[in-house]
Write a structure and sequence with these properties.
Strand order of the largest sheet: 3-8-4-5-6-7
CATH topology: endopeptidase fold (from Nostoc punctiforme)
CATH architecture: Alpha-Beta Complex
Oligomer: single chain
Number of domains: 1
């Protein structure tokens, strides 16, 4: 299997590296955290473009880590599941599980990566859904596939799974967009059958 390579789209390099050192602390448990550039340097550069890449099991681990948080209580500014999470704190915590340090602000997360059409047929697990009013982004969730997202909901007071097309955020927030901050590595995953070329 090729070395573990993680992908953060180009926008993440500029925005995330600018996060103050003091804002890059506060993860739960003993999970190590690293700035994105350090994490990517350890995994090697992607010769095919500006991102590192996740393979399918790594991408699916984001979904698993997100689902593990279902039922955790909502706490404004929370980044620790034992004490409670807010929406961006949930995103920060999940991605930190893979050694990726993301900002703890929905507005900053909305600038990372690349834009994706607001269509569940185009969206992939791990995409971030951002919500706001006017030009202000104030809420974020993680798409987990099959038309569902997981979010730390202030109105439900906990982390919940919600159908994307039926979600009506409180306070008149609107679905503003989808951001892809990871890319899927199309290389063959270890253990999957390889197709032999015709002779």
């Amino acid at each position: 299997m090729p070395p573990f390579r993680l992908v953060i789209l180009a926008g993440a390099f500029v925005s995330v590296s600018a996060v103050p050192a003091g804002a890059q602390t506060g993860t739960f448990g003993k999970t190590p955290t690293r700035a994105p550039l350090e994490a990517l340097a350890e995994r090697g550069a992607n010769p095919n473009g500006p991102f590192a890449k996740l393979n399918v099991p790594q991408r699916d681990s984001i979904i698993g880590h997100t689902r593990d948080l279902l039922g955790v209580r909502y706490k404004w500014a929370g980044v620790n599941p034992a004490k409670g999470l807010d929406c961006s704190g949930m995103v920060k915590y999940v991605f930190a599980k893979l050694g990726i340090e993301l900002p703890h602000r929905a507005a900053e997360l909305a600038k990372l990566g690349g834009a994706v059409t607001k269509d569940t047929a185009e969206m992939r697990p791990g995409d971030l859904l951002v919500f706001g009013k006017g030009k202000r982004i104030s809420h974020v969730g993680i798409y987990v596939g099959e038309g569902m997202m997981i979010q730390a909901s202030s109105s439900s007071h906990r982390v919940v799974q919600t159908p994307v097309v039926r979600y009506r955020p409180p306070g008149g927030l609107q679905w503003k967009g989808v951001r892809r901050v990871i890319a899927l590595d199309t290389a063959v995953v270890e253990g999957e059958p390889q197709v032999q070329p015709p002779r």
